[in-house]
Amino acid sequence: MPQAVEIESALRIRIAVMRLSRLLRPTEAGLAADLSPTRVAVLLNVVRNAPVRLAQVAEDEGLNPTLLSRTVAWLAETGLLSRTADPEDRRSAWLEPTEAGLALARRIREERTEAMENALADLSPAARATIEAALPALEALAERLGR
After folding, report:
1. Is residue 72 part of a domain?
2. How confident is the model over 75-91, as pLDDT tens digits?
3. 37/112 Cα distance (integer angstroms)
4. Number of separate domains in the chain
5. CA-CA-CA-CA torsion sign (52, 56, 62, 63)
6. What is the pLDDT of residues 110-143, one digit of tens each?
7. Strand partners, 52
8. 3-class secondary-structure state, position 84
9. What is this structure's pTM?
10. How far apart are CA 102 and CA 47, in angstroms?
11. What does the alpha-carbon distance between residue 64 and residue 138 come to, in Å, rounded to a whole number?
């Protein structure tokens, strides 16, 4: 059974990670393109994993089929994704980013990275060093949670 210190640490880490995620989510590029958080998540997933099956994106993002279908349709209509039927299984579809989708995803990632760089620059050198030293453990934690 976890001890009170472990529970408190888990709570603080979870809150900090969720707050960082929420604060980094909106970007000028995403807002200008009328992307909701779900649309951004789907676009970035497809960019990261392309070509990727629609079912895999649903599983990765925890989206129900109806919401995912609407989201993918919107992203395809706006020219950010292409959707093609699987020639071996017509019920299945493959997703790939278009050039416009790749460019938008790159701008979103750059804006998020710049926001993080600016926030880190405001911290003391000791605080930055502590965060950098914790990165391997945080990456391992993310990997473990992703199993």
Report:
1. yes
2. 999 999 999 998 888 77
3. 13
4. 1
5. positive
6. 999 999 999 999 999 999 999 999 999 999 999 9
7. 95
8. strand
9. 0.86
10. 7
11. 29
Residue 8 lies in a domain: no
Q: In DSSP terms, which residues pair with 82 in a beta bridge?
A: 96
For residue 111, give the nearest of 32, 51, 50, 36 by alpha carbon: 32
Structural tokens at position 83: 């959707």
Kindly tell me if the per-residue pLDDT of 1 is higher than 90.
no
Identify whether 7 is part of a domain: no
Tokens of 8: 């408190």
pLDDT tens-digit series, residues 38-54: 999 999 999 999 999 99
Residue 33's domain spans which residues? 27-145
Tell me if 142 sits within 8 A of 50, measured CB to CB.
Answer: no
d(CA 83, CA 42): 13
CATH assignment of the domain containing 114: 1.10.10.10
Residue at 18 is within a domain: no
Written as one string, the DSSP assignment of 42-73 is: HHHHHHHH-SEEHHHHHHHHT--HHHHHHHHH
**Residue 23 near residue 53 (C-beta atoms within 8 A):** no
pLDDT value, residue 92: 84
**81-86 and 89-97 strand pairing:** antiparallel
pLDDT of residue 28: 96
